[in-house]
Write a structure and sequence with these properties.
By secondary structure, this protein is α+β, with helices and mostly antiparallel strands. The chain is built from two helices and four strands. Strands 1-2-4-3 form a four-stranded antiparallel β-sheet.
């Protein structure tokens, strides 16, 4: 959660937070593509994957290579 919070653009606040089976869902975020790509980069550098899903963002630990 700390990595996701630090990676979100200023002012972006989810309306709901869910954590289940190693996946963090931040609901109520409508991030434009130009904000999503840098967010993915910051989370990727910290070892996480992020993608848009439904009305929010899904974050999980990046699979081992």
């Amino acid at each position: 959660m700390a990595a996701a919070g630090a990676a979100l653009p200023p002012g972006a606040q989810p309306t709901a937070i869910e954590y289940n089976n190693g996946e963090l869902r931040l609901r109520g975020l409508d991030l434009p593509d130009d904000a999503l790509e840098p967010l993915r980069g910051r989370l990727g550098a910290a070892g996480y994957q992020a993608r848009s899903q439904d009305d929010g963002l899904l974050v999980r630990v990046e699979a081992a290579r």
